[in-house]
Amino acid sequence: MTALFSCLSMANDNYAFLYLHKVMAAYSDKVQQCDGKAVMPVLTEEETVFLQRVLSPQPIVLNYLSHQAVTRCTQPEYTALLELVVSYPEMDVSFPAKNLAAVTGKMMAYSDLSAQAAYWQLSEDDRQALHAIKPLQRPFNVIYVFENIIQRDKEE
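Given the sequence above, the corresponding structure tokens read:
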């Protein structure tokens, strides 16, 4: 009986590790797909002027918006992986599976808190206006947007 339990436990551990790996691969593929879809957004004159005003003191807000756009694009794969990363430490799975989940969780959870803080320091009206800029809702080329805003600012 102990041998049967041991075999079942090993199969479960192997499945947990392989399943986590499969979900990680799907998420990784989705990130690559989203990165490949990153656009050079076409902004209106009004949007550009607004972004100049908002981003001049806090350009790091653009990083936050980019991260949010990629996170939206990677749904539902992001959520599926996050669920495993959160649940595996509490489940009866092998050490390698728990370790992989922990490392993956650290990579996923890394966030530039200064970018997030800068975003939340904006007024509610500015945050709503940022979210109304459609080209920034999908993955976009951060450097391109930033350079366009800076270039335009220098021209004025």
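The chain has eight helices and no strands. Try to locate this feature in the token string yourself.
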